[in-house]
Amino acid sequence: MSLDIASSLTLPCGVTAKNRIAKAPMTEGLADPLNRATERHVRLYRKWAEGGAGILITGNVQVDRRYLERPGNVVIDQNGGLEELRAFAAAGTANGTLLFMQINHAGRQTPVRVNPTPVAPSDVALALPGNAFGAPRALLSDEIEDIIRRFIRVAEVAKETGFSGVQVHAAHGYLISEFLSPLANRRDDEWGGSLENRARLLRRVVQGIRTRVGADYPISVKLNSSDFQKGGFDLEDCLQVARWLEEDSVDLLEISGGNYENPAMMIGVRGAEEIRETTVTREAYFLDYAKSIRAATKIPLMVTGGFRSRAAMDAALEGGDVDVIGIGRPMCVDPDVPNALLASREAGAVSYEATIKPSKAGLGWFCLNLIRLADDQEPDREMAGADAITAYLANEDATAAALEDFKI
Predict the structure, then answer these.
(1) Per residue in 304-349, pLDDT tens?
(2) CB within 8 Å of 292: residues ≥ 6 apart
(3) Domains within the chain, CATH numbers bracketed
(4) Contact call for residues 117 and 137 (beta carbons, < 8 A)
(5) DSSP labels for 330-399?
Protein backbone atom coordinates (compact mmCIF):
# COMPACT_ATOMS: atom_id res chain seq x y z
CA MET A 1 0.00 0.00 0.00
CA SER A 2 1.29 3.44 -0.96
CA LEU A 3 2.11 5.68 2.00
CA ASP A 4 2.03 9.46 2.18
CA ILE A 5 1.58 12.11 4.87
CA ALA A 6 -2.21 11.65 4.76
CA SER A 7 -1.97 7.96 5.72
CA SER A 8 -2.99 7.03 9.25
CA LEU A 9 -0.54 5.28 11.59
CA THR A 10 -1.42 2.75 14.28
CA LEU A 11 1.24 2.62 16.99
CA PRO A 12 2.27 -0.68 18.63
CA CYS A 13 0.12 0.15 21.67
CA GLY A 14 -2.97 0.31 19.43
CA VAL A 15 -3.49 4.09 19.32
CA THR A 16 -3.95 5.55 15.83
CA ALA A 17 -2.72 8.91 14.54
CA LYS A 18 -4.94 10.34 11.81
CA ASN A 19 -1.97 11.25 9.58
CA ARG A 20 1.83 11.08 9.47
CA ILE A 21 2.59 14.74 10.29
CA ALA A 22 3.80 15.64 13.79
CA LYS A 23 4.39 19.06 15.25
CA ALA A 24 7.90 18.56 16.60
CA PRO A 25 8.65 19.43 20.24
CA MET A 26 9.79 23.04 20.59
CA THR A 27 10.41 24.98 23.79
CA GLU A 28 7.58 27.43 24.52
CA GLY A 29 8.61 29.51 27.56
CA LEU A 30 4.97 30.30 28.38
CA ALA A 31 4.60 29.07 31.97
CA ASP A 32 3.56 31.26 34.89
CA PRO A 33 5.95 32.16 37.77
CA LEU A 34 5.17 28.81 39.42
CA ASN A 35 5.97 27.00 36.16
CA ARG A 36 2.38 26.01 35.51
CA ALA A 37 0.60 25.90 32.15
CA THR A 38 -1.32 29.02 31.16
CA GLU A 39 -4.02 30.26 28.80
CA ARG A 40 -1.21 31.00 26.35
CA HIS A 41 -0.57 27.25 26.03
CA VAL A 42 -4.28 26.73 25.42
CA ARG A 43 -4.43 29.31 22.63
CA LEU A 44 -1.22 28.08 20.99
CA TYR A 45 -2.04 24.38 21.06
CA ARG A 46 -5.61 24.91 19.89
CA LYS A 47 -4.20 26.69 16.83
CA TRP A 48 -1.77 23.86 16.22
CA ALA A 49 -4.46 21.21 16.70
CA GLU A 50 -6.71 22.98 14.24
CA GLY A 51 -3.71 23.20 11.90
CA GLY A 52 -4.14 19.57 10.93
CA ALA A 53 -1.18 17.59 12.32
CA GLY A 54 -1.87 14.05 13.46
CA ILE A 55 0.43 14.37 16.49
CA LEU A 56 1.52 17.39 18.54
CA ILE A 57 4.49 16.98 20.90
CA THR A 58 4.87 19.63 23.59
CA GLY A 59 8.06 21.41 24.52
CA ASN A 60 9.96 20.40 27.63
CA VAL A 61 7.79 19.63 30.65
CA GLN A 62 10.33 19.39 33.43
CA VAL A 63 10.34 16.97 36.34
CA ASP A 64 12.21 19.25 38.77
CA ARG A 65 11.76 23.02 39.19
CA ARG A 66 15.38 23.43 40.20
CA TYR A 67 16.70 22.34 36.80
CA LEU A 68 15.04 23.89 33.76
CA GLU A 69 15.93 24.24 30.11
CA ARG A 70 14.69 27.87 30.31
CA PRO A 71 12.78 29.90 32.91
CA GLY A 72 9.33 29.55 31.29
CA ASN A 73 9.20 25.74 31.18
CA VAL A 74 6.12 23.98 32.48
CA VAL A 75 7.05 21.79 35.46
CA ILE A 76 5.14 19.12 37.34
CA ASP A 77 6.75 19.20 40.77
CA GLN A 78 4.42 19.79 43.71
CA ASN A 79 3.38 23.12 42.18
CA GLY A 80 -0.28 22.40 41.45
CA GLY A 81 -1.64 23.38 38.06
CA LEU A 82 -3.62 20.23 37.28
CA GLU A 83 -6.67 22.12 35.98
CA GLU A 84 -4.39 24.20 33.78
CA LEU A 85 -2.88 20.99 32.39
CA ARG A 86 -6.37 19.65 31.65
CA ALA A 87 -7.18 22.80 29.69
CA PHE A 88 -3.86 22.50 27.84
CA ALA A 89 -4.62 18.86 26.97
CA ALA A 90 -8.19 19.62 25.84
CA ALA A 91 -6.94 22.30 23.45
CA GLY A 92 -4.15 20.14 22.04
CA THR A 93 -6.37 17.12 21.44
CA ALA A 94 -9.05 19.04 19.50
CA ASN A 95 -9.67 18.07 15.89
CA GLY A 96 -8.82 14.41 16.53
CA THR A 97 -5.20 15.25 17.31
CA LEU A 98 -2.90 13.21 19.55
CA LEU A 99 -1.01 15.35 22.10
CA PHE A 100 2.16 13.91 23.62
CA MET A 101 3.76 15.55 26.65
CA GLN A 102 7.53 15.71 26.31
CA ILE A 103 9.13 14.98 29.71
CA ASN A 104 12.63 16.21 30.50
CA HIS A 105 15.32 17.12 33.02
CA ALA A 106 17.80 19.72 31.77
CA GLY A 107 20.80 18.39 33.70
CA ARG A 108 23.99 20.40 33.16
CA GLN A 109 22.27 22.40 30.40
CA THR A 110 20.31 24.31 33.06
CA PRO A 111 21.18 28.00 32.50
CA VAL A 112 22.82 30.03 35.24
CA ARG A 113 19.83 32.38 35.32
CA VAL A 114 17.82 29.38 36.61
CA ASN A 115 20.41 27.59 38.75
CA PRO A 116 24.17 28.28 38.98
CA THR A 117 24.88 24.71 40.17
CA PRO A 118 23.19 22.18 37.91
CA VAL A 119 23.45 18.42 38.28
CA ALA A 120 24.83 15.84 35.86
CA PRO A 121 26.12 12.26 35.79
CA SER A 122 29.62 13.60 36.49
CA ASP A 123 31.14 16.96 37.30
CA VAL A 124 32.01 17.65 33.65
CA ALA A 125 31.24 21.21 32.59
CA LEU A 126 29.92 22.14 29.17
CA ALA A 127 32.73 23.01 26.75
CA LEU A 128 31.21 26.35 25.78
CA PRO A 129 32.55 29.91 25.97
CA GLY A 130 31.02 32.42 28.35
CA ASN A 131 29.26 31.87 31.65
CA ALA A 132 25.73 30.90 30.62
CA PHE A 133 26.02 27.50 32.37
CA GLY A 134 27.48 26.71 35.75
CA ALA A 135 29.84 23.85 36.62
CA PRO A 136 27.69 20.80 37.46
CA ARG A 137 27.97 18.51 40.44
CA ALA A 138 27.70 14.74 40.09
CA LEU A 139 24.42 13.15 41.14
CA LEU A 140 24.33 10.73 44.03
CA SER A 141 22.77 7.31 43.47
CA ASP A 142 19.71 8.08 45.59
CA GLU A 143 19.19 11.30 43.61
CA ILE A 144 19.17 9.27 40.39
CA GLU A 145 16.48 7.02 41.83
CA ASP A 146 14.50 10.14 42.76
CA ILE A 147 14.77 11.42 39.17
CA ILE A 148 13.38 8.12 37.87
CA ARG A 149 10.41 8.47 40.22
CA ARG A 150 9.88 12.04 39.01
CA PHE A 151 9.75 11.01 35.34
CA ILE A 152 7.25 8.27 36.16
CA ARG A 153 5.08 10.61 38.22
CA VAL A 154 4.98 13.24 35.46
CA ALA A 155 3.91 10.56 32.97
CA GLU A 156 1.11 9.53 35.33
CA VAL A 157 -0.04 13.16 35.57
CA ALA A 158 0.05 13.46 31.77
CA LYS A 159 -2.32 10.52 31.45
CA GLU A 160 -4.54 11.73 34.31
CA THR A 161 -4.93 15.20 32.79
CA GLY A 162 -5.81 14.07 29.26
CA PHE A 163 -2.59 14.03 27.26
CA SER A 164 -2.66 11.31 24.59
CA GLY A 165 0.85 10.03 25.32
CA VAL A 166 4.31 11.01 26.54
CA GLN A 167 7.74 11.48 25.03
CA VAL A 168 10.85 10.92 27.14
CA HIS A 169 13.56 13.39 26.07
CA ALA A 170 16.82 11.44 25.79
CA ALA A 171 18.52 13.67 23.22
CA HIS A 172 20.19 17.07 22.74
CA GLY A 173 22.51 16.90 25.74
CA TYR A 174 19.91 17.04 28.51
CA LEU A 175 20.21 14.79 31.54
CA ILE A 176 19.30 11.38 30.08
CA SER A 177 21.40 12.17 27.01
CA GLU A 178 24.27 13.09 29.34
CA PHE A 179 24.04 9.68 30.97
CA LEU A 180 24.21 8.04 27.52
CA SER A 181 27.36 10.00 26.57
CA PRO A 182 30.76 8.63 27.61
CA LEU A 183 32.08 12.20 27.43
CA ALA A 184 29.61 13.57 29.99
CA ASN A 185 29.21 10.35 32.01
CA ARG A 186 32.48 9.28 33.64
CA ARG A 187 30.93 7.31 36.48
CA ASP A 188 32.33 3.95 37.55
CA ASP A 189 29.19 2.65 39.26
CA GLU A 190 26.06 0.96 37.84
CA TRP A 191 25.12 4.18 36.01
CA GLY A 192 28.34 4.58 34.02
CA GLY A 193 31.02 2.82 32.01
CA SER A 194 29.45 0.31 29.63
CA LEU A 195 26.62 1.32 27.30
CA GLU A 196 24.34 -0.99 29.27
CA ASN A 197 25.07 1.03 32.41
CA ARG A 198 24.87 4.40 30.64
CA ALA A 199 21.46 3.46 29.22
CA ARG A 200 20.17 2.25 32.58
CA LEU A 201 18.55 5.59 33.50
CA LEU A 202 16.64 5.79 30.20
CA ARG A 203 15.48 2.18 30.38
CA ARG A 204 14.43 2.41 34.02
CA VAL A 205 12.40 5.53 33.21
CA VAL A 206 10.68 3.91 30.20
CA GLN A 207 10.03 0.63 32.01
CA GLY A 208 8.66 2.45 35.04
CA ILE A 209 6.34 4.59 32.94
CA ARG A 210 5.04 1.54 31.06
CA THR A 211 4.25 -0.21 34.34
CA ARG A 212 2.22 2.78 35.56
CA VAL A 213 0.40 3.89 32.39
CA GLY A 214 -0.45 0.45 30.99
CA ALA A 215 0.10 -1.29 27.68
CA ASP A 216 -2.29 0.85 25.62
CA TYR A 217 -0.83 4.30 26.38
CA PRO A 218 1.73 5.67 23.88
CA ILE A 219 5.31 6.13 25.02
CA SER A 220 7.75 7.88 22.70
CA VAL A 221 11.47 8.52 23.13
CA LYS A 222 13.53 11.28 21.50
CA LEU A 223 17.00 9.87 20.90
CA ASN A 224 20.16 11.16 19.27
CA SER A 225 21.39 9.26 16.24
CA SER A 226 24.75 10.65 17.34
CA ASP A 227 26.09 13.47 19.50
CA PHE A 228 28.50 14.30 16.64
CA GLN A 229 31.39 14.54 19.09
CA LYS A 230 34.52 12.41 18.91
CA GLY A 231 34.30 9.79 21.65
CA GLY A 232 30.66 10.59 22.40
CA PHE A 233 27.38 8.73 21.93
CA ASP A 234 27.48 7.53 18.32
CA LEU A 235 25.36 5.70 15.78
CA GLU A 236 26.41 2.23 16.95
CA ASP A 237 25.38 3.17 20.49
CA CYS A 238 22.08 4.48 19.13
CA LEU A 239 21.35 1.23 17.29
CA GLN A 240 21.80 -0.83 20.43
CA VAL A 241 19.72 1.54 22.56
CA ALA A 242 16.98 1.40 19.92
CA ARG A 243 16.95 -2.42 20.17
CA TRP A 244 16.60 -2.18 23.94
CA LEU A 245 13.79 0.36 23.65
CA GLU A 246 11.90 -2.02 21.40
CA GLU A 247 12.20 -4.64 24.15
CA ASP A 248 10.81 -2.02 26.54
CA SER A 249 7.68 -1.49 24.38
CA VAL A 250 8.36 2.02 23.09
CA ASP A 251 5.76 3.12 20.51
CA LEU A 252 7.53 5.92 18.63
CA LEU A 253 11.21 6.82 18.35
CA GLU A 254 12.05 10.36 17.26
CA ILE A 255 15.52 10.55 15.70
CA SER A 256 17.59 13.67 16.22
CA GLY A 257 21.20 14.54 16.98
CA GLY A 258 23.60 16.91 18.66
CA ASN A 259 23.65 18.93 21.88
CA TYR A 260 24.51 22.45 22.99
CA GLU A 261 28.19 21.84 22.26
CA ASN A 262 27.41 20.71 18.70
CA PRO A 263 23.84 21.78 17.85
CA ALA A 264 23.14 19.50 14.88
CA MET A 265 19.44 19.53 15.86
CA MET A 266 19.34 23.21 14.83
CA ILE A 267 21.86 23.39 11.97
CA GLY A 268 21.62 19.85 10.63
CA VAL A 269 24.41 17.42 9.93
CA ARG A 270 25.88 19.97 7.55
CA GLY A 271 27.29 21.66 10.62
CA ALA A 272 28.14 18.43 12.41
CA GLU A 273 31.14 16.14 12.30
CA GLU A 274 29.58 13.70 9.81
CA ILE A 275 28.32 15.37 6.62
CA ARG A 276 26.00 13.41 4.34
CA GLU A 277 25.37 15.15 1.02
CA THR A 278 22.42 12.88 0.29
CA THR A 279 20.75 14.09 3.47
CA VAL A 280 21.18 17.71 2.42
CA THR A 281 19.70 17.13 -1.02
CA ARG A 282 16.68 15.31 0.45
CA GLU A 283 16.00 18.09 2.96
CA ALA A 284 15.90 15.98 6.14
CA TYR A 285 18.89 16.28 8.44
CA PHE A 286 18.71 12.83 10.00
CA LEU A 287 17.06 10.67 7.36
CA ASP A 288 20.26 8.78 6.49
CA TYR A 289 20.61 7.80 10.13
CA ALA A 290 17.00 6.63 10.22
CA LYS A 291 17.86 4.11 7.49
CA SER A 292 20.37 2.43 9.79
CA ILE A 293 18.04 2.58 12.77
CA ARG A 294 15.20 1.09 10.72
CA ALA A 295 17.40 -1.96 10.10
CA ALA A 296 17.88 -2.36 13.86
CA THR A 297 14.33 -1.93 15.15
CA LYS A 298 10.67 -2.14 14.15
CA ILE A 299 9.68 0.80 16.38
CA PRO A 300 7.89 3.44 14.27
CA LEU A 301 10.39 6.22 13.52
CA MET A 302 9.90 9.97 13.40
CA VAL A 303 12.43 12.29 11.77
CA THR A 304 12.44 16.04 12.37
CA GLY A 305 14.70 18.68 10.88
CA GLY A 306 14.80 20.19 7.41
CA PHE A 307 11.64 18.78 5.82
CA ARG A 308 9.88 21.51 3.83
CA SER A 309 8.22 20.04 0.69
CA ARG A 310 5.41 17.51 0.59
CA ALA A 311 7.25 15.69 -2.19
CA ALA A 312 10.24 15.00 0.08
CA MET A 313 7.96 13.98 2.95
CA ASP A 314 5.98 11.53 0.83
CA ALA A 315 9.17 10.12 -0.69
CA ALA A 316 10.65 9.49 2.76
CA LEU A 317 7.51 7.69 3.93
CA GLU A 318 7.20 5.65 0.75
CA GLY A 319 10.84 4.60 1.09
CA GLY A 320 10.00 2.98 4.42
CA ASP A 321 12.84 4.54 6.41
CA VAL A 322 10.54 6.79 8.44
CA ASP A 323 6.93 6.59 9.63
CA VAL A 324 6.24 10.12 10.88
CA ILE A 325 7.42 13.49 9.53
CA GLY A 326 8.24 16.09 12.15
CA ILE A 327 7.77 19.78 11.37
CA GLY A 328 9.10 22.40 13.77
CA ARG A 329 10.08 25.97 13.01
CA PRO A 330 7.61 26.64 10.16
CA MET A 331 4.78 26.08 12.66
CA CYS A 332 6.08 28.92 14.84
CA VAL A 333 4.92 31.22 12.05
CA ASP A 334 2.29 29.24 10.12
CA PRO A 335 0.22 26.94 12.37
CA ASP A 336 -1.81 25.78 9.34
CA VAL A 337 1.20 24.25 7.55
CA PRO A 338 -0.09 20.64 7.97
CA ASN A 339 -3.47 21.49 6.44
CA ALA A 340 -1.73 23.13 3.48
CA LEU A 341 0.56 20.15 2.97
CA LEU A 342 -2.34 17.70 3.16
CA ALA A 343 -4.37 19.72 0.67
CA SER A 344 -1.83 19.64 -2.17
CA ARG A 345 0.98 17.37 -3.33
CA GLU A 346 2.80 20.47 -4.59
CA ALA A 347 2.64 22.28 -1.25
CA GLY A 348 5.63 23.21 0.86
CA ALA A 349 6.34 24.88 4.16
CA VAL A 350 8.03 28.26 3.91
CA SER A 351 11.61 28.34 5.20
CA TYR A 352 12.52 31.57 7.00
CA GLU A 353 16.03 30.68 8.15
CA ALA A 354 17.81 32.26 5.17
CA THR A 355 16.14 35.64 5.77
CA ILE A 356 17.16 35.91 9.43
CA LYS A 357 20.45 37.75 9.85
CA PRO A 358 22.61 37.16 11.78
CA SER A 359 21.92 33.43 11.57
CA LYS A 360 22.39 32.98 15.33
CA ALA A 361 19.23 35.06 15.75
CA GLY A 362 17.10 32.16 14.52
CA LEU A 363 16.31 30.67 17.92
CA GLY A 364 15.06 33.98 19.28
CA TRP A 365 13.20 34.85 16.07
CA PHE A 366 11.17 31.65 16.07
CA CYS A 367 10.61 31.67 19.85
CA LEU A 368 9.27 35.22 19.73
CA ASN A 369 6.91 34.39 16.87
CA LEU A 370 5.69 31.34 18.78
CA ILE A 371 4.93 33.66 21.72
CA ARG A 372 3.06 35.99 19.38
CA LEU A 373 0.84 33.08 18.28
CA ALA A 374 0.20 32.25 21.94
CA ASP A 375 -0.78 35.87 22.58
CA ASP A 376 -3.21 35.76 19.61
CA GLN A 377 -1.08 38.15 17.57
CA GLU A 378 -0.01 37.82 13.97
CA PRO A 379 3.56 36.57 13.46
CA ASP A 380 6.15 39.23 12.69
CA ARG A 381 7.75 37.91 9.52
CA GLU A 382 9.74 41.11 9.06
CA MET A 383 11.38 41.02 12.50
CA ALA A 384 15.07 41.90 12.22
CA GLY A 385 17.50 39.30 13.51
CA ALA A 386 19.35 41.72 15.78
CA ASP A 387 16.05 42.87 17.28
CA ALA A 388 15.07 39.23 17.83
CA ILE A 389 18.24 38.54 19.82
CA THR A 390 17.69 41.56 22.05
CA ALA A 391 13.99 40.90 22.62
CA TYR A 392 14.51 37.18 23.25
CA LEU A 393 17.19 37.77 25.91
CA ALA A 394 15.04 40.43 27.57
CA ASN A 395 12.09 38.01 27.66
CA GLU A 396 14.25 35.31 29.26
CA ASP A 397 15.60 37.68 31.90
CA ALA A 398 12.11 38.94 32.76
CA THR A 399 10.73 35.40 32.98
CA ALA A 400 13.61 34.30 35.23
CA ALA A 401 13.13 37.33 37.49
CA ALA A 402 9.44 36.50 37.90
CA LEU A 403 10.00 32.91 39.05
CA GLU A 404 8.72 32.42 42.56
CA ASP A 405 10.91 30.78 45.19
CA PHE A 406 10.16 27.13 45.56
CA LYS A 407 11.37 24.93 48.38
CA ILE A 408 11.57 21.18 47.86
Answers:
(1) 877 889 999 999 999 998 999 999 999 999 999 999 999 998 888 8
(2) 225, 235, 239
(3) 9-354 (3.20.20.70)
(4) yes
(5) GGGT-TTHHHHHHH-TT-BPPP-GGGSSSGGGHHHHHHHHHHHHHTT----TT--HHHHHHHHHHHHHHH
